[in-house]
Amino acid sequence: MIKICFVCTGNTCRSIMAERLMKKILKDRKIDGIKVISRGISAKGENINKNAKMVLKELKVLSSNRKSVKLGKIDKNTLYIAMTNQQKNFIPSKKVLSFKDLLGNDIDDPYGQDIDYYRTTAKLLLQGINILIEKLQIWR
User: Fold this and answer.
1) Per-residue pLDDT tens over the stretch 16-47
2) Which of 13, 80, 107, 117 has the CB geometry, 3.0–4.6 Å to 96, for a possible disulfide?
3) pLDDT at 139 exceeding the cut of 70
């Protein structure tokens, strides 16, 4: 079993979107053996952002509410995927990548931006997730 944890700041936009998008892709492609979660470095138990939820719904991804979860104890068997290199440096694990490692650029925080910014964020997340899945298939 491969465990992946997407990490951002508050776990209300980017990381939860990445989690839900990856789960849908794995289900659609009938890929099993990969558990996906998300956490926030400064999560405070808030609901998923309304624009993030709306974009997920547009992409036909489960967009139900869920309280954000703070990144806690690091599991040595989990692969952590941070949205930015700065967040990557915060995670004390040998198994950590950032979207910059996957895509060549960080995924900026869409919080407070308009719906189109969230759509662009989702497109970037999908690109990075597809690269990640390809890499995971090679490592298996």
Assistant:
1) 999 999 999 999 999 999 999 999 999 999 99
2) 80
3) no
Annotated catalytic residue within 5, 13, 14, 20: 14
How far from chain centre, in Å, is Cα 135?
A: 16
Domain range for residue 35?
2-139
Q: What is the pLDDT of residue 63?
A: 76
Specify whether 8 is catalytic: yes
Q: Output the pLDDT for position 140.
A: 56
Per cent of the chain over pLDDT 70 is 98
CATH number at residue 43: 3.40.50.2300
Task: Say whether 32 is catalytic.
Answer: no
pLDDT of residue 62: 83
Instruction: Summarize the chain as % helix, strand, coil (round to 5).
Output: 45, 15, 40
CA 105, CA 84: separation in Å to the nearest integer?
A: 8
Give every CB contact of residue 132 below 8 A, 6+ residues apart in sequence: 4, 22, 81, 97, 102
Please give the angle made by the CA atoms of 118, 122 and 70, to the nearest 5 degrees. 85
Q: Is 109 a catalytic residue?
A: yes
Query: Which among 8, 13, 20, 39 is annotated as catalytic?
Result: 8
